[in-house]
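Example record for the data management plan.
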Amino acid sequence: MKILMINPNTSSEMNRTMDTVAKKYALPQTQITTVSPLDGPIYCQCL
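Corresponding structural encoding:
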């Protein structure tokens, strides 16, 4: 299985966190890719 996680902000730290957590819970054969835009906000805040 392949999972593409799209991070809507440009924070590389958030990308690493998302990737680490996803891989922790995924099956060994699952391929996880985390991407974000090259330009845009550093973070998105929800109120």
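Summary line stored alongside the record: Helices lie at 12-25.
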